[in-house]
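At this stage, I wrote out one protein's amino acid sequence and its backbone structure tokens, and that material follows here:
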Amino acid sequence: MADMLRLDRQAELRWLEVVVSSALIVLPIVLGLLAGQERAGLAVAMGAMLGSNVTRHGSARAQGEEIVLIALALFLACLVGVGIAGWGGWADLALWGVMTLAALCGNFDRIAALVCGRFIVFVVILTEMARQARHPHAMVVLVMAGGVAAACLVSVLGRGSPPSILPPRDIGLGAKAGRWVWSFRSLSSCQFPLRLSVLMALTLSMDALWPERHLLWAALTVALLCRRPLDPVPARASQRALGASLGVLLSCVFLFHDPSREEFMLFLTGLGVAGMVARKQNYMLYSMVTTPLIMILVGGKSIGESILVDRLIATIVGAGLVVVVNIVVARMIRSCENRISGPRGLDGRVPAIKRPHAVE
């Protein structure tokens, strides 16, 4: 509970970046409402929200690489989401295959891990958005416009901040390929694709069995919480579940009180600013704010009671599945390691008596 509620006081809060990032999300929706093109404004705002999560770097070259990686992940997610959204009952199977392949490709190197990690989150959101879009192909252009503009502006505003720690120099392509192939021989090396594949199979099966229940939200929860480092009981899972629950309660404003256009714009502005502030301070607060924001971006102004209940249940189920699968896979890895190297002591080391050749 302490980890869930703790604020990251070391995170630097730059108000100009907060204002610009939230304006890139709010202004397209407001302009779309005023022009009678609500869906177009939502698509641009969604791209801005996804593209604004830029890591700060000290050099212009590193910033340019970051923008290119975000744009690449967003473009691929748009193409896949729009392409499989109209497949009907096969869409969930195709989405599972694409995300499993992305998780495997992410083991290739650092750049592949960055692109595939963002792609996995982006493609779930954009697939759901494409299902409800009237013109899915036009959505690609609008989402990309918002995403690239947000990535460029936020990156420029981040200049002057302390440079991030540079990663080690990459090895050659042949060595990367050999290491990537060799990683499939070890359970600990391919545990992330295994966990993501199992989790997506479970959540997407639920969406296929009950398509009217909006259970793709459980897959989004899994995509957000399933990280490459294996943490059996991640604090983020509890933060996501509690934050989303509070976010659904916050969304009841649209259920029990039909807001005017001015009230809706004010509420949306508050969500945008609060989301950008909470992003670097506390993940639970960020989840609480972004839950209604994402629901608005995906579904528009009208949020029904069934959608609120379904997404609350889907979030709790998705977070619970992440914890269960993480524990099972962690025990499998520990069992494999003990089988290979023998029993370990309390400090995790193999006792010397079990390895006589090492003593000799």
Remarks:
- The chain has a mean pLDDT of 82.
- The first helix runs from residue 2 to 5.
- Residues 12-161+179-342+353-359 form one domain.
- The chain has one domain: 12-161+179-342+353-359.
